[in-house]
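Protein in question kept in full:
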Amino acid sequence: MPTKADPCSQPSLMHPDEAITRLLEQVTPLDDSEVVQLPHALGRVLAEDLASSIDLPPFNNSAMDGYAFRFDDLAHNESLTLIGQSFAGHPFEGEVKPNTCVRIMTGAPVPNGYDTVQMQEKVEAKEGDIFIEAPKAKGANIRYQGEEVSTGGKVLFSGTQIGAAEMGVLATIGVSQLRVTRQVKVAFFSTGDELRPIGSELAPGQIYDSNRYTIQGLLSRANIEWIDLGVIEDDPEAIRQAFRHAASCADMVLTSGGVSVGDADYTKQILDEEGEITFWKLAIKPGKPFAFGRLGKAIFCGLPGNPVSSMVTFYKLVWPLLQKMQGLPQTKPLTLKATLKGELRKFPGRVEYQRGILSHNAQGEAEVTITGGQGSGMLTSMSLANCFVILAQEQGNTADGTLVTVEPFNSVLC
């Protein structure tokens, strides 16, 4: 018996890969920048190349604890005379003489005249005489001045996102402030008389406004400056003013709900009047309705109202736009193959992002299980998951033991 088609599928639905390609063509990176202090640079994007004003390392130093000496002295000496020590921050200041050595610690300067370091485990000390097992080569265990970066050499390039390693690199070369791309600003709000703030009592037919908090979390993880405009009542003028205010203070206006073609509310009407908006239906589950366009100078993205649909479309469609606006390169998400534990139900017609838990069995092989119910309103399915199980558009039901494509959650969703 042939597999039934997805009842929500239509020939006109756009594949999500085509959608993101078209969306990216319509946004450009921000061209303004600002200077920030290094402690506040984490997650920001460099707006210029950075060169080192010093050599790295700034001096020859020891790669380990041991003894520094002249390699050639070992050819005619059974032992060397210990004449001092060199510690990090407290270098040896005496005169280097033939047939001598100094005790040296990791990172400490190698005294001028010495050319080799032997680790302490291969050295024997007897009453001031140091017996050294022959090292592998002259110059062993020395980190040479400028071997990592020489003065004037580029260390980071424009478009680099500053992470923990980059923070350390910048501190190493003495950078206290740097020029970065201005953070993208995103204004968002919810609409609906049924929405109530958390902490209040619910009357019949009312629900808590959860999507705003999800969006706030997603934007924070994406290193975006967000502006929460709260809940807007179902009133045409209130909605109009909210859109105008959002567009005036942000680079992107983001909403959830109220953008489906069949919605009987004021949101779509006001969007049509205030901006240039295209309403799309995508071959994606969850998350078929999506809106994109402009409100004044701001980009507009309208997410579906169901909580999981909102998260999935943000991740697949909005987050790549925000990356481009920040000046970051586009990268394909990491995917891998895992063995499905259990069965999956699916109708052909849409690309499906089911929520899964990726793990490894005793043999180290990747396995994935589904997080129970996959309804687009079941936000716990996202909370329990650590990956998406991606089912292709024309794929149908999937049997236990099948190899499936898995996309581990990135830092925005973790």
